[in-house]
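Please, structure for the following, as tokens.
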Amino acid sequence: MLKRLFDVGVSLAGLIVLSPILLILALWVNLSSEGPIFYRSTRVGRGGAEFKLLKFRSMVINADKLGPAVTGARDPRITSVGRVLRRTKLDELPQLWNVLVGEMSVVGPRPEAPKYVAYYTPEQREVLRVRPGITSPASVKYRNEEAILTGDDWEALYIREVMPAKLAIDLDYARSASLLKDIQIILQTFLALFR
């Protein structure tokens, strides 16, 4: 209950305070390339329920039909503005809305696409007991994930190595989550962004 109150307070304050920046980013995305401002991606949330994760669009139209759901280093589907948004994680700001409506939390395991959740072991599926988050301990550790995903088949590398490593970190978080730990992770996220 306390975590949900924290999430509502942070997301509502964030949406209000950041509204001028959100508007500028929306205009930038709109003017930079053809397509919608927002990208809505199907993700798996708490209890295995699917929801639409909201992001500023950082890729060309129909990018999900042109390649894998994960992006690797130098992915040609990413727009020039998208590269900046992704590097700074500003593309994630619209997820404050997902938090406000209860689909996500500020801190929690990052939600995956159903395609990748299908690879989860029964133990890994335990991450679905908690709300997914905008940031997580795995997000901090794998902040530059796209740089790791190189080569001809970065999706296979993601499924085989990166996803299980991230899930192990997020499982540990899910088993011992607390508001104090969430605040620490938020601070770590900000420090990682400004490194």
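The chain has one domain: 2-193. The chain has a mean pLDDT of 91.
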